[in-house]
Design brief:
single chain, 277 residues, two-stranded antiparallel ribbon, 9 helices, mainly alpha
């Protein structure tokens, strides 16, 4: 066994496999579906900070794509100047072209390992991988909502996975821009938008249903994560375009100061009136 495989097995595979079987033991009825759902959510929450950074970077790059396309078109005959202009553009907007890729590269090995964990966690054959101090369920229930997760599901879960894949792809779909180059780019992007869900359905039909279930939970989490990233970016843009003159705290402090001044002024008037009398 290579060093990398041994490292992944020791650091990632065995702990995740043990966590899955422990959740199966913990859940009433020892249903592996709920264990897969819970473990997937836990992993996604752990990876959430890096995922959000990647999503924000991806959304920001998508919004700036029209300006970037203009720069590329302006210096299309001089690749050196084009590269310099693009790097200055990235520096100006404080973005990194790798900002949306590096966090995903970190997550990729974990997601691949989870794939094998869910395949081997559908039975008791690999209990030799369990830590000695963990309890072991006598049986693992693989039937969930009438679907046997140990066997391929031909319709329900694969189609759900494909639909969610389409929704997620639609979220990051670049906006159409004028220009021949952009038309070609948009055509390719639109083709992938429709082809990827089809590939997802075809592949999911051939795998044990536990894998489409895992993909559904992961994609749902990704959709929510991208929605949050878009919302935070829109909020940031709104604050930049329409800055608030006063925060709520400042307004409250101003109100209190005004009341205090009014009291002092009123008190001063009363004293003046008394002295005149």
């Amino acid at each position: 066994m290579s060093t990398i495989k041994l490292f992944l097995k020791t650091i990632l595979y065995k702990p995740l496999f043990n966590a899955l079987i422990f959740l199966v033991w913990l859940i009433p009825g020892h249903n592996v579906a709920w264990a897969i759902i819970i473990l997937t959510i836990i992993i996604r929450l752990i990876l959430l900070p890096s995922s959000l950074r990647a999503a924000r970077a991806q959304m920001k790059l998508r919004d700036l794509q029209p300006e970037l396309a203009k720069i590329q078109a302006e210096y299309k005959d001089d690749k050196t100047k084009q590269s310099q202009a693009v790097m200055e553009f990235y520096k100006k907007h404080q973005i990194s072209p790798w900002g949306s890729c590096l966090p995903l590269l970190i997550q990729f090995p974990i997601l691949i390992v989870l794939y094998y964990v869910f395949i081997n966690g559908l039975g008791t054959q690999r209990f030799d991988l369990l830590y000695s101090f963990l309890p072991r369920p006598e049986v693992i229930n693989t039937v969930w909502l009438g679907i046997d997760l140990a066997r391929p599901d031909r319709w329900i879960l694969p189609i759900m996975a494909g639909i969610l894949q389409f929704i997620q792809g639609r979220q990051v779909q670049p906006k159409p821009q004028p220009g021949k180059g952009q038309d070609m780019q948009m055509a390719m992007s639109r083709q992938m938008l429709y082809l990827m869900p089809v590939f997802t359905v075809i592949i999911a039909m051939r795998l044990p249903a536990a894998l489409p279930l895992y993909w559904i939970i992961t994609t749902l989490f990704g959709i929510g994560q991208q929605w949050w990233a878009m919302r935070s970016l829109q909020t940031a843009k709104s604050e930049i375009l329409n800055p608030k003159s006063e925060t709520n705290g400042e307004k409250e402090e101003i109100r209190k100061n005004k009341e205090e001044i009014d009291k002092q002024v009123k008190h001063g008037v009363e004293v003046t009136v008394r002295r005149k009398k």
